[in-house]
Design brief:
The protein has 123 residues and is an all-beta fold. Helices cover 0% and strands 50% of the residues. The protein has strands spanning 2-7, 10-12, 18-26, 33-39, 46-51, 58-60, 68-73, 78-83, 92-99, 112-113, 117-121. The strands form two sheets. Strands 2, 4, 5, 6, 9, 10 and 11 form a seven-stranded mixed sheet that branches. A hairpin with a 6-residue loop joins strand 5 (46-51) and strand 6 (58-60). It is globular and about 45 Å long.
């Protein structure tokens, strides 16, 4: 029904920046929520950020507040995650997810997922 494709990951040094993109294609929705999650080696998948249909309704996990910015372009069905001041602990596979309704911080709330993009922060 829906395909999500992440891009923009890579290998960077601490303090560098990256911008991740996630483009949705296939079935269209009048309104939807988009979220970012990440999973580091040996750890559970964790919530990073969420943005609902109204772009002002945004939430972040405490560890990325002030460093990451989530945004969306509804005309392009695309969500972005601008990451600055990256730290080694940000290293993970980053996944975008879409929910036709309110979404939230739980992975179980999301109906569609991308395949992930690797972000590695190392000196």
């Amino acid at each position: 029904q829906v395909q999500l494709v992440e891009s923009g990951g890579g290998l960077v040094q601490p303090g560098d920046s990256l911008r991740l993109s996630c483009a949705a294609s296939g079935r269209t929705f009048s309104r939807y929520t988009m979220g970012w999650f990440r999973q580091a080696p040996g750890k559970e998948r964790e919530f990073v950020a969420v943005i609902r249909w109204h772009a002002g309704d945004i939430y972040y996990v405490d560890s990325v507040k002030g460093r990451f910015t989530i945004s969306r372009d509804n005309a392009k069905n695309t969500v972005y995650l601008q990451m600055i001041s990256l730290k080694p602990e940000d290293t993970a596979v980053y996944y975008c997810a879409l929910d036709p309704d309110e979404g939230g911080s739980s992975p179980a709330a999301y109906r569609y997922w991308g395949q992930g993009t690797q972000v590695t922060v190392s000196s």
